[in-house]
Protein 1
Amino acid sequence: MPDKVEQLKLAVFVSGRGSNLAAILESEILKGIAEVILVVSDKSECKAFEIARNYKINYVSVCTGKKEGFLNYDELSELLKENCVNLIVLAGFLKMIPPELIKEYPERMINIHPALLPFFGGKGMFGFNVHKAVFESGMKVSGATVHFVNERYDEGLIIAQSAVDISNTVKAEEIASRVLEAEHKLLPKVIYDFALGKIKIINNRVFTN
Ligand code: GRF
């Protein structure tokens, strides 16, 4: 293990499938470096919760306002603090995070997006919509982006990107699966670099070195 490592306690926010959550949990480079402490969803049940149960990780549902079985964001914030969470990873979380929570994790909240931002991001650009839009645009390259979270959808500083050649794809589904494969490598790598203190912001650009 490298000398200078910050032990990361992650909360992973999800809305559905949870394949990026699984990629983090299965990542060899993150073993002994990052532990998923909590899985958070805006749904009462989702596939990612099944993964959490299999790994015996606590999971909770969250919403703004009041709903049976759901925490509100103040309660969630308390829980994150109690668990000493020091990095929040949004991996397919479809709801906007309240600004108060974003402020509590300055440069410690990241999101993965399935396209090369700043293109094909923003409102409505989630899940398969993204790949369909990329396919219809005729672009020859797509990819995955990990960025810091700010108060606007997909607009925080870009940390890392992985480009995928889609020049010979004949349907959007193919783009989706190639990009997902890239995501599963990129997200654990960024978390790893984060733990090693390699990610720095200088003049509003993110450097990894
Ligand atoms: C991923 O494509 C991610 O980039 C996007 O939502 C999808 C989540 O997939 N934000 P999964 O739940 O991790 O399988």
Note: The longest strand covers residues 34-41.
Protein 2
Amino acid sequence: MADGVIASAPGKLMLFGEHAVVYDYPCIVTAVDQRMMVEVKLRKDKRLVIRTNQPGMSRYERQVDELGQGIIPKQAKFSEMLVSNFYSKFKVENGLEIRTDCQFSSKFGFGSSAAVTAALAMGLYELFSIKASKPELFDLCYKTVLDVQGVGSGFDVASAIWGGTIYYIKGGKKIEAINCGDYPLVVGYTGIKADTPTLIKQVAKLKKRNSEKVSKIFTEIKKITEKARTALEERDDKELGGLMSLNQLLLDELGVSSNRLDELISASCKNGAWGAKLSGAGGGDCMIALAGEEKKKKVENGIRMKQGEVLKVKHCAEGVRLEKRK
Ligand code: PMV
């Protein structure tokens, strides 16, 4: 057994298929090169101690035999539930010290919860010298996400584990790497933090009221996602951009876009992007645009002119990995 390990997992950006993926339609997601770092160490006592660099909680502590019970601060929920699920699965009861350090702000919607869950899972398997395949890591992490938030397709967990750009169907029914290399993505942050479970519930309500309309929208989104997969493989960036804008129209019909997102998306298109859309649940967080090298700067300036923050991230990053073993 190791004394301590450090593992890391990437953040993510949804490229196509958000919301529809919650209802078993496919999506495409890419991992970004900003990572969540997690250090795990054994303790001599029977306490779980979590230290984070997140706002609002620097240190949290509790007894190992009380894991998952009572009120848990939101910054510790995913870590504590993951430890609880891991400990029940492998009948472990050691004290544990966890330190998380995120290279990106949790406000961007890059999936810090999924990334911390994936990195911590790998850290625990390594710490206790238990071998785990990617699907095994996924099952433990996805169960944890559902235990904490009750809803979600698990696309963010798959992205944190597999990395790259993947084609994904809910619950890990399909996780397929898309061989696409580097495509010219621009990322703009609206300045507004979105609440994913609220937006998922909003779409569920709409689906209940108007099931036929929403099913039609989802079927169209599926067609776009399938075409986008081919466009990515063939590196037809113009086609890909056009598909982004079509996907955006449908997300708008679902009612999940917002004025801020619309402003940044339209600024991108006016400044020469091939297409643009929101990324993730909507309501805020980030938008993405696809623009040729000669237009990229113009598109970025267009986003800034509308008070958007351009985030310099590389996509197709590596999935969860072991950084250090002591
Ligand atoms: O806001 P994000 O980046 O967590 O993305 C949510 C994407 C949804 O499809 C709306 C939900 C999900 O779990 O797939």
Note: The longest strand covers residues 27-43.
